[in-house]
């Protein structure tokens, strides 16, 4: 993790286009950032940004790249709960909480640049703009609902339902009965939050039932196509 050799002025245009900062004049926003604490850091793909149970000390805005929110179970399996990309906010729902610990691990999905805004600056921004404060409250509420709904949905669905959801999305995205796999089956299992052996077992069942055929690089829809 290192400080990027640029300052906030390089990202001022992008910030002013977001709902969070759209109520500010450029000069006012530059003045606030110049007077109070923030940091801009770059992360390599796969680099850990926050560990589970690490103290949250800033609200973060993704300036470039994307990050994933991950949950690792006691067997070492990785569940990708959500992925966030440029312009999205992290940590806003934790920073002012009495229990401000990250409940999950945050990892850079590729080369990523993040703006870390500390408490004092957030308070100053809120004092300067009611529009900023209103949007910040909306961000907090929406992020909490998103993560709660995602965890709830994953916990209720069977492996087959999750596989079918994945195939349905790719079927319409690729417009083909032959779904090209852009990730390995190990990575797919991680995204679904299941053991790799459990995924392989379910795929074998679906093959025996005549629903699909598959190899290392693709899954072909057969009897399943009419059910998507």
Write structural notes for this entry.
It is a single chain. The chain has two domains: 2-156, Sandwich (Jelly Rolls); 159-227, Winged helix-like DNA-binding domain superfamily/Winged helix DNA-binding domain (Arc Repressor Mutant, subunit A), CATH 1.10.10.10. 39% of the residues lie in helices and 25% in strands. The chain has helices at residues 12-16, 26-35, 119-128, 130-156, 159-174, 185-192, 196-208; strands at residues 2-3, 38-43, 48-50, 58-64, 66-72, 78-85, 89-90, 105-108, 112-118, 178-180, 212-214, 218-221. The chain has a five-stranded antiparallel sheet. The radius of gyration is 21 Å and the shape is elongated. It starts with a strand and ends in a 7-residue tail after the last strand.
List keywords for this structure.
228 residues; alpha+beta; Jelly Rolls; Arc Repressor Mutant, subunit A; four-stranded antiparallel beta sheet; elongated
* Quaternary: single chain
* Rg on CA atoms, Å: 21 Å
Order of helices and strands: EHHEEEEEEEEHHHEHHEE
Highest CATH level, the class of the largest domain: Mainly Beta
Shape: elongated
Uncertain stretches of 5 or more adjacent residues? 1-5
- Provide the helix percentage: 25-40%
Secondary-structure arrangement, i.e. CATH architecture of the largest domain: Sandwich
- Give the total of domains: 2
Strand order of the largest sheet: 1-2-9-4-7
CATH topology of the largest domain: Jelly Rolls
Intertermini distance? 43 Å
What does the average pLDDT come to? 85
Strand content: 15-25%
Q: What class, by secondary structure content?
A: alpha+beta
Q: Summarize the main sheet.
A: 5 strands, antiparallel
Total of helices: 7
């Amino acid at each position: 993790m290192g400080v990027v050799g640029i300052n906030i002025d390089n990202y001022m245009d992008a910030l002013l286009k977001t709902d969070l900062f759209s109520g500010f004049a450029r000069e006012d926003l530059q003045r606030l950032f110049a007077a109070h604490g923030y940091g801009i850091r770059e992360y390599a793909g796969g680099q850990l940004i926050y560990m589970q149970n690490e103290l949250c000390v800033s609200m973060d805005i993704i300036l470039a790249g994307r990050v994933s929110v991950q949950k690792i179970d006691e067997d070492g399996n990785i569940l990708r709960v959500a992925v966030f990309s440029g312009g999205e906010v992290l940590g806003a729902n934790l920073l002012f909480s009495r229990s401000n610990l990250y409940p999950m691990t945050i990892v850079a999905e590729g080369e990523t640049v993040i703006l870390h805004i500390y408490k004092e600056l957030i308070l100053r921004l809120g004092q300067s703009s009611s529009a900023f404060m209103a949007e910040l409250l909306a961000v907090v509420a929406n992020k909490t609902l998103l993560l709660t709904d995602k965890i709830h949905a994953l916990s209720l669905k069977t492996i087959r339902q999750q596989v079918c959801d994945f195939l349905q999305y790719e079927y319409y995205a690729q417009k083909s009965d032959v779904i090209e796999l852009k990730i390995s089956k190990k990575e797919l299992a991680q995204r679904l939050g299941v053991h790799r052996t459990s995924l392989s077992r379910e795929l074998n069942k679906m093959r025996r039932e005549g629903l699909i055929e598959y190899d290392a690089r693709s899954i072909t829809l057969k009897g399943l196509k009419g059910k998507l």
